[in-house]
């Protein structure tokens, strides 16, 4: 945590506890471990000898069974993400995360109890609902709670936690896959209880988002929450000034009228541009093909003739975790746009090399070494850029009045494409179907080229801006390419004496 503070040298006039700002954001990011671990477990489980012999009557899973068992989690997460605003916009961000861990736990119980594929499928659907709610609320809470100087890095840690979850799943699968009993799959599945308990207990003590309280008109509660998050007294001028800006900006947003789901797609306040940007960046994150490696990597490496596919998959996960760190370190230095652009280039080149060599020299020793090496460079490029930054962009670009719903729609887009890719991929690579094998990377490489074009044309640079200043950015800057030159004004609070009066009254009520 001290490293983070050195990397992101906040302005000297930043007041309050920097440690607290980082610690709270990092803990909430722990929700990514639930997400990543659950995602990573299934790849190894479906490749386990005991599971194949006892969950099927033929000793192997067909492409259809593999497709259904793997992708059904994403179907649940899509539904969970879509309905997340019902919780986050009514009960709050904090209670929404608590509810997600409870739903997730029910799904884990069913998966651990399963001795045949039908109950396993039901458990994955329910666990997926919990993960979907969590995936929509974690970046939302982080963005609303973190100060601007560290916000991007804090939200990036959500993706880092996802990669850690994937790595932990790979390690546990490696340790249990050779067992010839139900412990081979029940142990890795049951470990998820621990992650859920940690998340549940932590959210019992963390504060609610101050912006949620502002949205509900509870200014004294918002002031207390902001005071806790910043580690300053409620009557501190810095806390009062930040709350004034939040209140003034929200009052400006309310001038556009009431908020419904339809408002997420209206042109007013450039919301249509923002929602299309958020949905597209989440969809493109999946279309990079990253989850092909983590859902089907073990089986793909096995089919490619690579010895020790479990070890190879473990290496991929280690690269994913390690290379997320440079992205966290650089996000507030290089900015969102630069990292996304360079990440797209690195992924595109790596995937085309894998596809070309794998097609020209199938099952050769040279091809296998190339496949492993450039799969690692692909994952490294993704982990340092598109992995964390897609969530950062989505958490930052929406106005408060529709932020909860908009982030949920974007997360749902991620899961919809996740489901489509998870469902279709077995048919694309299966020997009895399309049998593309390494040629599937031509598809992913083409999509990463689209990633580059999309960022260049549509993604705004939001480095160093408060969430309220991001609203001003969209109001005043017509082009994403010009956004890096944007200089914020004095803010909404400067022209809103009503906001100052409301905050003063809130201080008096405490």
UniProtKB/TrEMBL annotation:
Q: Which InterPro entries match?
A: MFS_dom, MFS_sugar_transport-like, MFS_Sugar_Transporters, MFS_trans_sf, Sugar/inositol_transpt, Sugar_transporter_CS
Of the GO CC terms on this record, one is: plasma membrane
Give the chief site where it resides.
membrane
Annotated NCBIfam families: SP
**Entry keyword Transmembrane helix:** yes
- UniProt keyword terms in alphabetical order: Glycoprotein, Membrane, Sugar transport, Transmembrane, Transmembrane helix, Transport
How this chain sits in the membrane, per its record, is:
Multi-pass membrane protein
Task: Tell me where the transmembrane regions lie.
Answer: 21-48, 68-88, 95-114, 120-141, 153-175, 187-206, 275-298, 310-332, 339-360, 372-394, 406-429, 441-459
Tell me the protein family, please: Belongs to the major facilitator superfamily. Sugar transporter (TC 2.A.1.1) family.
Q: Which Pfam families match?
A: Sugar_tr
Q: Does the keyword Transport apply?
A: yes
Q: Give residue ranges for domain Major facilitator superfamily (MFS) profile.
A: 24-463
Ranked from the top, the taxonomy reads: Eukaryota, Fungi, Dikarya, Ascomycota, Saccharomycotina
Gene Ontology process terms (BP): glucose mediated signaling pathway
One GO MF term attached to the UniProt entry: carbohydrate:proton symporter activity
Compartment(s) of residence: Membrane
Note the PROSITE patterns from the entry.
Answer: MFS (PS50850), SUGAR_TRANSPORT_1 (PS00216), SUGAR_TRANSPORT_2 (PS00217)
Under which name does UniProt file this protein? LALA0S05e09736g1_1
């Amino acid at each position: 945590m001290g490293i983070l503070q050195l990397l992101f040298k906040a302005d000297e006039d930043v007041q309050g506890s920097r440690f607290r700002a980082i610690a709270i954001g990092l803990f909430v990011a722990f929700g990514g471990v639930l997400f990543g671990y659950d995602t990573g477990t299934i790849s190894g489980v479906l490749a386990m000898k005991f599971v194949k012999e006892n969950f099927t009557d033929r000793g192997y899973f067909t492409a259809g069974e593999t497709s259904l068992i793997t992708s059904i989690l994403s179907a649940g997460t899509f539904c969970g993400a879509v309905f997340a605003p019902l919780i986050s916009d009514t009960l709050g961000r904090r209670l929404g995360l608590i509810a997600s861990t409870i739903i997730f736990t029910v799904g884990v119980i069913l998966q651990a109890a399963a001795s045949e594929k039908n109950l396993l499928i039901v458990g994955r659907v329910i666990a997926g609902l919990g993960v979907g709610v969590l995936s929509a609320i974690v970046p939302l809470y982080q963005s609303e709670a973190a100060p601007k100087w560290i916000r991007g890095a804090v939200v990036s840690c959500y993706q880092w936690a996802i990669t850690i979850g994937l790595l932990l799943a790979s390690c546990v699968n490696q340790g249990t896959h050779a067992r010839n009993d139900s412990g081979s799959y029940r142990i890795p599945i049951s470990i998820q209880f621990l992650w859920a308990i940690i998340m549940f207990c932590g959210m019992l003590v963390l504060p609610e988002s101050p912006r949620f309280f502002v949205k509900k008109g509870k200014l004294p509660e918002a002031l207390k929450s902001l005071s806790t998050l910043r580690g300053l007294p409620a009557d501190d001028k810095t806390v009062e000034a930040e709350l004034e800006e939040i209140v003034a900006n929200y009052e400006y947003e309310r001038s556009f009228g009431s908020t419904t789901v339809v408002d997420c797609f209206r042109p007013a306040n450039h919301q249509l541009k923002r929602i299309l940007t958020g949905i597209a960046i989440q969809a493109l994150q999946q279309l990079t093909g990253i989850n092909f490696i983590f859902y089907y990597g073990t089986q793909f490496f096995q089919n490619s003739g690579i010895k020790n596919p479990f070890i190879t998959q473990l290496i991929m996960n280690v690269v994913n975790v390690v290379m997320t760190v440079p992205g966290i370190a650089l996000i507030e230095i290089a900015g969102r746009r630069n990292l996304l652009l360079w990440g797209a280039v690195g992924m595109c080149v790596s995937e085309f090399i894998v596809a070309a060599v794998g097609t020209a020299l199938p099952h050769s020793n040279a091809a296998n070494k190339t496949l492993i090496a450039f799969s690692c460079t692909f994952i490294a490029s993704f982990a340092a850029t598109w992995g964390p930054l897609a969530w950062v962009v989505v958490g930052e670009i929406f106005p408060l009045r529709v932020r909860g719903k908009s982030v949920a729609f974007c997360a749902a887009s991620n899961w919809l494409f996740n489901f489509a890719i998870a469902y279709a991929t077995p048919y694309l690579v299966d020997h009895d179907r399309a049998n593309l094998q390494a040629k599937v990377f031509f598809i992913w490489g083409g999509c990463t080229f689209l990633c580059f074009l999309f960022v260049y044309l549509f993604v705004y640079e939001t480095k160093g801006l408060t969430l309220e200043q991001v609203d001003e950015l969209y109001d005043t800057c017509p082009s994403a390419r010009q956004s890096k030159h944007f200089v914020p004004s004095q803010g909404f609070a400067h022209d809103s004496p009503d906001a100052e009066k409301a905050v003063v009254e809130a201080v008096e009520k405490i």
